[in-house]
């Protein structure tokens, strides 16, 4: 219930995320914990949106490189966003769905609002090392935290 409440408060289904790649170095490193919110506003160059592309197993957090506007019907304007990882040589166009050169604002789940460095390595370790996960579970049973 706590996660659901946090999701409602931040306006995104993923209010906390852990960096797992080096695409945003030096801004973020693997193991950094990111805090995300999605309060409706226009996207600006330099923002750090969280996008979950249809063919991806994980969300992508890259910096906004360019913002354009597409007029669908007067007077509504749709923001189109081009992203790029700080540590990548090229923009993310190749990662977008086929035939799509930009992301519409509707494909953004939220924006990075803050972070804590390196603490996420514990969670990454639990996912990558079965023995560590079992050790933590046994420790919790030993002190009465699980049944």
UniProtKB/TrEMBL annotation:
This is Signal peptidase complex catalytic subunit SEC11. It is an enzyme of class 3 (hydrolase). Keywords: Endoplasmic reticulum, Membrane, Signal-anchor, Transmembrane, Transmembrane helix. The keyword Endoplasmic reticulum applies. Belongs to the peptidase S26B family. Its main location: endoplasmic reticulum. It is found in: Endoplasmic reticulum membrane. It is a single-pass type II membrane protein. It catalyses: Cleavage of hydrophobic, N-terminal signal or leader sequences from secreted and periplasmic proteins. It comes from Penicillium rubens (strain ATCC 28089 / DSM 1075 / NRRL 1951 / Wisconsin 54-1255). The keyword Membrane applies. GO terms for cellular component: signal peptidase complex.
């Amino acid at each position: 219930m706590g996660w659901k409440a946090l999701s409602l408060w931040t306006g995104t289904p993923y209010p906390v995320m852990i960096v797992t790649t080096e695409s945003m170095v030096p801004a973020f490193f693997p193991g950094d914990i990111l805090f995300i919110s999605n309060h409706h506003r226009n996207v600006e160059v330099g923002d750090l949106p969280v996008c979950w592309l249809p063919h991806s197993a994980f969300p992508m957090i890259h910096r906004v490189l360019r913002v354009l506007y597409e007029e669908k019907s007067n007077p509504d304007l749709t923001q189109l966003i081009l992203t790029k990882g700080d540590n990548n040589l090229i923009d993310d166009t190749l990662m977008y769905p086929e035939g799509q050169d930009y992301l519409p604002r509707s494909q953004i789940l939220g924006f990075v609002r803050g972070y804590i460095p390196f603490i996420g390595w514990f969670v990454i370790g639990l996912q990558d090392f079965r023995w560590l996960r079992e050790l933590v579970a046994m420790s919790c049973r030993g002190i009465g935290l699980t049944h």
